[in-house]
Amino acid sequence: MSPQLAKRDIRRLAEVLLLPEDELISEYLQPGEDKGAYVSRQAPCPFLQDKLCTVYEARPDNCRSFPNLHKRDFRSRLIQVVENSTVCPIVYNVLELLKLEFWRGRGRR
Ligand code: SF4
C-alpha cells in the first residue's frame, strides 16, 4: 500500500530524517493523484524495514489513520474495506465480527 503525503507529512518526515524537503521529495517521492500530494516512488514503502516503520513517530497522516474504520460513511467504503481485509488483520477481524453480528441479528427477526 502506498500512503499519500500532504505538505505537513513531508515537513514532519524531513525534520526526522534531517533532510531538506526538496531532497526528501526527489529521493523518495513522486506526485500523487491529488493536487499537491505525493506518494512513495517505491513499494513497499522505503521506510519499512524488518516489518517495522522506521519513521513511526513522524509517519504520514494516512498511515496514522489506516485502516480508517473510525471514519464516517463506513457503508459507502465497504468495497475498500473488503480489499483492505486481504492485507490488514485488523480489518479482517472487524469484518468477521460484523458478519457474526449480522447473522445474530437476522436470527432475532
Ligand atoms: S507506516 Fe511507516 S513504513 Fe508503513 S507506509 Fe507509513 S511511513 Fe511507510
Fill in the keyword field for this structure.
109 residues; two-stranded antiparallel ribbon; two-stranded antiparallel sheet; 2 domains; 5 helices; mainly alpha; binds iron/sulfur cluster; elongated; 9% strand; single chain
Task: Characterise the protein shown here.
The protein is elongated and about 60 Å long. The protein is mostly helical. It has 5 helices and 4 strands. It has a two-stranded antiparallel sheet with strand order 1-2. A two-stranded antiparallel ribbon has the order 3-4. The protein has helices at residues 7-17, 21-28, 61-65, 78-84, 89-108; strands at residues 29-31, 38-40, 48-49, 52-53. It folds into 2 domains: 7-65, no CATH class; 74-108. 47% of the residues lie in helices and 9% in strands. The structure holds iron/sulfur cluster. The site of iron/sulfur cluster (SF4) has 9 residues, from loops. Iron/sulfur cluster binds next to loops.
Summarize it:
With 109 residues, this protein is mostly helical.
**Unreliable sequence segments:** none
Our count of domains comes out at: 2
Helix fraction? 40-55%
Specify the biggest β-sheet: 2 strands, antiparallel
Helix-strand makeup class: mainly alpha
How confident is the prediction overall: mean pLDDT? 92
Count every helix, treating DSSP H or I runs of 4 or more residues as helices: 5
Number of strands: 4
- Overall outline: elongated
Task: Give the amount of beta strand, in percent.
Answer: 5-15%
Cα distance spanning the termini? 40 Å
Question: Strand order within the widest sheet?
Answer: 1-2
Radius of gyration: 17 Å
Instruction: Name the ligand types.
Output: iron/sulfur cluster
What's the helix-strand series?
A: HHEEEEHHH
